Please model this.
Amino acid sequence: MIETDRPTVALTGATGFVGQATLDAVLAAGYAVRALTRREQPAREHVRWVRGELADTASLSELTRGVEATIHVAGVINAPDPAGFEQGNVTGTLNLIETAIAKGIPRFVHVSSLSAREPELSAYGASKARAEKLLMASPLDWTIVRPPAIYGPHDKEMFELFRAARWGVVPVPREGRASMIHVEDLARLLVALVSGGDAVSGRMFEPDDGRPGGWDHHEAARAIGGAVGKRPKVLGLSRGALEWAARLDGFFRGTKAKMTMDRAAYYSHPDWVASPEAAVPAAIWAPRIETREGFRSTAQWYREHKWLRP
Model:
């Protein structure tokens, strides 16, 4: 149930990795939530679950009924072809933008990706870049957030690296650096942006863990190894080797493959470091979770939930 004395936020992707953390953060900040979901969800105080999806404009109309702002987290991160990214990340975002405009709900916080900086590298990045352009061309009061690599409890993507470290060998791109952010820090940022204001409206931010220059891939792999109590061998892979791994993963796991040709392309790019020029103003938000400690707490969560062996 939703209490009428709480301001209400519409949230997409609330059942996913980032969305779950965002839902918790929005509620902790004193908001009620209307949350989009494809499946039945357990009742939760101050939450109204709305059955539907981004392709269903009727459900989006219900999602945004009586809300003051929209946080758009939902998106497709893995698809067998560009059409899958286009439908989930571009068309879905356009549907939500048009609904917000029609309902007169101007505030829109959009979760994009650093991959949108280099749209020519991957279909995923290209779709996120197109979604950004649609939002920027709209009359909405928008803020775009381009997170770097996100990790934390419930994550199934970087979990692959934790599991590999437990086995003793962590494959990473041979060269390059990337920024990191804990999902709870990202969720706090999204909530901090809901109220808008001159410092954040019409801005694009690239948040991170506060580590200047990001993480060398080998160093990050060793830190993940330390979090699971191992000293793994770090295997640096060229783009060709990553593409070979993608073909192999596709052969064994089909549409459930984690390493795809699309991912091989953007993983091989040497610079996924958050830009200091796109940093969030310190008066609005700052990261709280140091990444090595975050890796350790994430590994502990994986162990407690039987994702990793003790």
Summary: The chain has a mean pLDDT of 93.
